[in-house]
Amino acid sequence: MSSISVRWKRPYMIYRRSGHSGIQLPAISLGLWHNFGGIDDFTVARDMVLTAFENGICHFDLANNYGPPPGSAETSFGRILLNDLKPHRDELFIASKAGHDMWEGVYGTGSSRKNIIASCNQSLQRTGLDYFDVFYSHRYDPDTPIEETMQALIDLVRQGKALYVGISKYPKEQQEQAYTILRDAHVPCLLSQYRCSIFDQKAKQANFDCAQSNGSGIICFSPLAQGLLSGKYNKGIPANSRAAKPTGFLQESQVTEERVEAARKLDEVATERGQTLAQMSLAWVLNDPRVTSVIIGASSVDQLKVNLGAINNLEFSTEELKRIDEIVQKPTISF
Questions:
Q1: Phi and psi (nearest 5°) for 39?
Q2: CATH classification at residue 57
Q3: I need a labelling partner for 51 at 20 to 30 A (CA). Which of 105, 245, 253, 303 fits?
Q4: Is residue 80 part of a domain?
């Protein structure tokens, strides 16, 4: 794929407003959690980023620890930005985060002011950016006062290193506290990031209403349940899949027959809708009007293009939603 050298013209993409802000994000965003690290094929990573941009995805989701090795996804994105997308910086919305294990020593993890500020500075260096559009606290850290973490985010905005701030995976009580602290400092929480899929509906029940009532947009990750809702496990565990690897977020033990059977039944619903299972699973998350955007991963341009097709059919009938609920209502299916 050649460098993007002409003015970008927005293709067909749905954009949604983030909470009470003036920011609109594409319904589908690209996450660089997997397949963009130093061990991955850079040419493929570059093609996926440029294809995403050419198809209306202007929001790219990073974190300081994405790789492997940690930090390398930001470095890869920085190369793509420098060589291909630099003229389009003002058309991009770039996110990063800090809070999980990153470097050796006592300051390389957690959500202290020390870690948040240092992490942002390092991430800006790796990406070559002057600022992030949004910078997140990647997780609630029970060992750090929430006031300290939020003040660090507030100061990043006031220092010009981030335009907006967000939180990720915060429990409801701390979620509410974070909103209050940020709102009182006139740096409201732009986005709240939570895991959500047909197989994992806990955040819908516990966190979405709190975010909406506080004016925060909601962005969802892992909408395909780490691949279980992609259809790839419907006939067993492929040799090159995440579940086949000894490390990772989807273990072989999680690919249970009950979940696979549920995925097969969901696939039947998707086929009747004229969609792949992955497309329907993305559409299901986006069917919630509280959701601003859903973050997808990709391992190839073809996979990315197929998943982008989800926006062509986001509507569900009452009967379809009922069938989906009946398929996944068993507690052993939920993550």
A1: -90, -5
A2: 3.20.20.100
A3: 245
A4: yes
